[in-house]
């Protein structure tokens, strides 16, 4: 039975325990966590929690849960490793560059192939748990970097770091139109769309969500934007950009549409990932180039707005690689011309 211990950060002081868990572990809904509390699967400061209990800064919240029967997938039968995904690995973690159309872990409709399937021999020995090593996710059509844990202790530490916003994820996206102002933040709560349960939306009573953006380059009808997350809601970047009228190009669910012949899919890429190693504390930073199916957009006459990509105050803490914008645009165009 999976188990995790979380420490309540200052920003969560005074929250109900079920809401705290839903905010920290968003892959499970608040309703699910309410059921776990009622089933006596949650402890606060070593005492069994009750519905309505509040958590306070520094509290230890211990939670365990039973995976649904469908989770008893025989992943131990997987013996091969797809090394093409691996950017970095050691005894504690694996960092991967996820391609388009590949889901992170087994789920309905995706029982045969996922990142977890392709790396299963590296991800510990819990064969009944269908998300071994997973601490955060990327949507099926979003490309780029994510980190997985190779054992349950590391998984717990990474989950805590993500909850405390100590794992820094930066994205690149091509969006429709020009965002005004060119740099800013989108602060709007996110919840389930009332009309389409497959979608999320900005809703008054949703969970707090903030996305920061920085326009890197412009061309007629499109912008290349760098984005980072202060929170990690489902579809957050896609929802926020759509809500302000600048949907991600190729994002059909949220109104992005496809430019004919210029793009192979949704133009959202997790290009940089920075965090402290969960075992030794060493600062780590990884950068992934744009996926090859973006190359058609590179032929457009882009004009640089910022001198560099992936540059902000976090660079003082992590050994990150910053790209010169002109170099990025030149390489992007070269890939198209060489195809």
TrEMBL record:
Record has RNA-binding as a keyword: yes
Molecular functions (GO terms): RNA binding; rRNA pseudouridine synthase activity
An annotated GO BP: enzyme-directed rRNA pseudouridine synthesis
Presence of keyword Isomerase: yes
Catalysis: reaction(s): a uridine in RNA = a pseudouridine in RNA
A Pfam family per the record: PseudoU_synth_2
Keywords: Isomerase, RNA-binding
InterPro entries (alphabetical): PsdUridine_synth_cat_dom_sf (IPR020103), PsdUridine_synth_RluA-like_CS (IPR006224), PsdUridine_synth_RluC/D (IPR006225), PsdUridine_synth_RsuA/RluA (IPR006145), RluA_PseudoU_synthase (IPR050188), S4_RNA-bd (IPR002942), S4_RNA-bd_sf (IPR036986)
RNA-binding S4 domain span: 15-76
EC number: 5.4.99.-
Family: Belongs to the pseudouridine synthase RluA family.
Function: Responsible for synthesis of pseudouridine from uracil.
Name of this chain's protein: Pseudouridine synthase
